Amino acid sequence: MLAALSALAMLSACGGGGGSGGGPISTPTPAPAPQPAPTPDIDFDTAEFRRSDGPALHDAVAAWQDGATGRGVGIAIIDTGIDPDNPEFAGRISSASRDVAGDRGIDSPDGHGTQVALVAAAARNDRGVMGMAYDATIIAFRADLPGTCQGFDPVNPVTGCSFNDSDIARGVNLAVSAGARVINISLGGSNPSSVLRSALASAAEAGAVIVVSAGNDGEGGDLSIDPENPDPFAIGTLRAGGANVIIAGSVDAEAQISSFSNKAGRYAASFLAAQGEDVCCVYQDGQIYTETRDGTDFVYVVNGTSFAAPQIAGAAALLAQAFPNLSGAEIVSLLLDNARDAGERGTDAIYGRGVLDIGAAFAPSGTTTLAGHGTALSLATAAGSVSPAMGDAGQQGTTGAILLDGYGRAYSVDLAGRLRSAAPRRDFARSLMGSARGASLQAGGLGASFAVADGIHGGPGGGPPQLRSEDAAQAQLLAARISARIAPGTEVAFGFRQGASGLEASLRGADRPAFMVAQEPGTDLGFAAMNAGSMAIRREMGGWGLTLSGEAGAVWNERLDDELAILPARRNRLARYGVSADARKGAIDASLGASWLHEDTTLLGGSFQSALVGRGGADSMFLDLAAGWDASPGWRFGLSVRQGLTRPIAGGLMTDAALLHTSGWSIDAARSGIFTRQDRLALRVSQPLRVESGALALNLPVAYDYASESATMGISRLSLSPTGREIATELSWEGPVWGGTAAASLFMRRDPGHVASASADMGAGLRWSRAF
């Protein structure tokens, strides 16, 4: 036995193997798979894995991590039998296994069948090697013609086991009867007989995947066989089994075609390459045989398309277990269509469809839809894009859903993990970049001002620019304002590309410190907005004032970040209406306001796939409180707080149970007249608007049954709260310098972007501007 195995290891056409402990088991009836299993946390990078040739090259780990091991799937191996005493097969040799050419038992006389079985399904047991489908059931059919293997001579490659087509056909028929999903035939030779072709056709009709080796005549040793095409036996098998057949060519560990392998030729559409060169290892007495020569240990490896075929057969078994809805033809299609391209681009005459890629075959293919709904939900893009107020929402908890791909395969997807985080705020950069030119005029009760900003300075924001002369460098693109006193104690203002909060502040005569990073909550919507137009009207009421305001615009995105985009896009429209009351008594002033924000298609600036939320849109209510204290000449302290509630507009799979709570705040201290009468030093500590609590309640498919092809629905919550809480601290100075206005800033942010894992950042900025 050992001599034969050692010789076989050095032959290109054959392979060897060792034994298995434990008796045969009955072939199990594959049960319908439950909903897709969560990815197990298993480390497959073991010594056993590294000894195994094929799983790494063909990315079997992608399937294993998804829970596919071949369990419950029968792989029929029609060959020279199997060593039933090898522990690699313990408990997994089907009782349907038999000698179909005689009555000799299934023990392999030359080790070839054993070696094929090892490649397909050797156990994962921390010893020896492991096969592609290491939990699969092996149905071994010994089909070698009695007496032919006894003449095997390792020195003479023309000797070896012989097979009758009628015996192979009997093995094929019994494989179908035993429920085999995959049939591996690592044999070659002449065209199959009509009896065998009929058996192969019946197996294909029954849904079995048939994998046949391409042949080992690549170096032209047999003048009767064209090495540029598969050998006649493989071609005949393909013609009989059609779309259920894969012809297996061999590549080496670098995915280069083996010199001994027959090529794809005219049958490239059904030709798939897998590792069949230098495949470890030959077994003796249930373990890898090692030979010591001159103090060095050697193991025997095997070569041949015989061992490429079971790599593919094992991959087919993994697919059959993971997705029991697949037909044999669909499994073949997935393996061929998702092959890793090799050789000339696309299907070619050497590699055929390419090299086996199990990970790609397991990935969703075609249009993905929500199970039970048929509603398309793309996996090519994020489930949604959150806004700055949501930070890194989706990092806390999971929101599972079941999707079906174009093959009806069910996948468990974490929608929370597929949210795209908000883009970082760019207020600081925008406040420094670009240039601006402004002008203003005043005639009695009528005033007007405008600013034209160059470059990319026209950034989004609900508050700035105020269009005061000292803030001209912060003006948006083509921003303008007109104000008029229309009656005693009544003023009205209209703004273009300016937020209503800026108009309110100017009508009240507010004079706030300019900060580059730390926002004032009353101007913070939780996302960037591009204002189209705004208006405000204020009425003095004898010691206090009442202001009504409104604005329209659009949620900012890169498509709108264009200085030529004068009008907001209709699909991202927003509108905000507010009312506020302000009063001053002595050194203290205060204001209290409420506003309503309506978004047509977004949720606090975030957007989600329409399959989940329908048309989208949301309504928000904000309550704002601000107070200031002029403690002494030159000193001022301020406090601002915003509290908000946002309710998404129900649609798609979203119920109406969602309600988001948001908040933001700032504390200021300012000292005027530090170096000159006009300069000011100010400190602000603030938290930009943040989603404090709330989640989308989605009615999602949470389980799937392949047997009934039905989904179980359940309410899943998609949390929109971030993991962190940004706290910005900024020290700013502004004042006249060299005939212009200078501003300097030092800042530090903890949990920038409301992301707990983000490192604190700090920076400094210096800006100088001059009106012309």
Automatic annotation (TrEMBL):
UniProt KW Phosphoprotein keyword: no
Pfam family for this entry, one: Peptidase_S8
Recorded superkingdom: Bacteria
Gene Ontology BP, a term: proteolysis
Keywords annotated in UniProt: Hydrolase, Protease, Serine protease, Signal
InterPro entries: Peptidase_S8/S53_dom (IPR000209), Peptidase_S8/S53_dom_sf (IPR036852), Peptidase_S8_Asp-AS (IPR023827), Peptidase_S8_Ser-AS (IPR023828), Peptidase_S8_subtilisin-like (IPR050131), Peptidase_S8_subtilisin-rel (IPR015500), Peptidases_S8_Autotransporter (IPR034061)
Family annotation (PANTHER family): CEREVISIN-RELATED, PEPTIDASE S8
Biased composition range(s): Pro residues: 27-39
Residues covered by region (Disordered): 16-43
UniProt record similarity statement: Belongs to the peptidase S8 family.
Keyword Transcription regulation: no
Extent of the signal sequence: 1-15
Lineage: Bacteria, Pseudomonadati, Pseudomonadota, Alphaproteobacteria, Sphingomonadales
Organism for this UniProt entry: Croceicoccus marinus
Stated name of the protein: Peptidase S8/S53 domain-containing protein
Domain Peptidase S8/S53: 70-354
Enzyme active site: D79, H112, S306
MF-aspect GO terms: serine-type endopeptidase activity
SUPFAM superfamilies: Subtilisin-like
